[in-house]
Amino acid sequence: MEPYNAQPDKPQRTFLLWFLAICTMINAGLNVISFSMYAFFPDLIRQSMTIMQNMSLFSGDEYKEMIEIFLSVAPWQYLLLILAEAASFAGALIMLWKLRSVGFHIYTIGQILEFCTLNFIIGGKMTMPFSAVLVTVLIIVMYATQLRYMNDRFEEKDQNIEQTTPNE
């Protein structure tokens, strides 16, 4: 009977890593699209919202207030959010496709940039609620549990073996 080895012998793409990365890429992609619309086409957004409100698809003061909040954000602030989401997308893609831990660091930097942009640069009603911060931290922790399955650990092990092998 072989002893249980908690560390894998080769890089693995686990279901959790696959699921997290796919969800991250979908979310980041949709956010990039919506932030781009707000940053580059605010007049079009305003017109669309007026039409939708007149059609009674969305009504009420809350809806009007929400749109005004989104449209009051400066385009350069949306560009920071686009950069943060692009970093999250790239990090997830690197972790999923290449199984590289640098993707985890890029993803985490993207999340920190998004947090700082929403809470300190934009502020006001666009701040992240505590529940969103908690979910973000939870996802980062779940990604961190997948680091042991990435290529970097195995390349390090191979280099250590090469260094300790005597040259003949």
Q: Give the overall silhouette.
A: elongated
Largest sheet: none
Residues in helix, % = over 70%
Global structural class = mainly alpha
Radius of gyration equals 22 Å
What's the number of helices? 7
* Strand segment tally: 0
- Residue ranges: pLDDT <50 for 5 or more in a row? none
Strand content bin: under 5%
Which quaternary structure do these chains form?
Answer: single chain
Q: Mean pLDDT, as a whole number?
A: 86
Ends distance: 36 Å
Please provide the ordered H/E string of secondary-structure elements: HHHHHHH
Fold and architecture overview:
The chain has helices at residues 15-40, 42-54, 61-72, 75-98, 102-122, 130-144, 151-164. With 168 residues, the protein is mainly α. The chain has a domain at 23-35 and 74-156. The protein is elongated, with a radius of gyration of 22 Å. The protein starts with 14 loop residues before the first helix and ends with a helix.
Give the arrangement of secondary structure elements.
Elements lengths: L14 H26 L1 H13 L6 H12 L2 H24 L3 H21 L7 H15 L6 H14 L4
Helix pairs in contact: 1-4, 4-5, 5-6
Name the features:
168 residues, mainly alpha
Describe what is shown at a glance.
The protein has helices spanning 15-40, 42-54, 61-72, 75-98, 102-122, 130-144, 151-164.
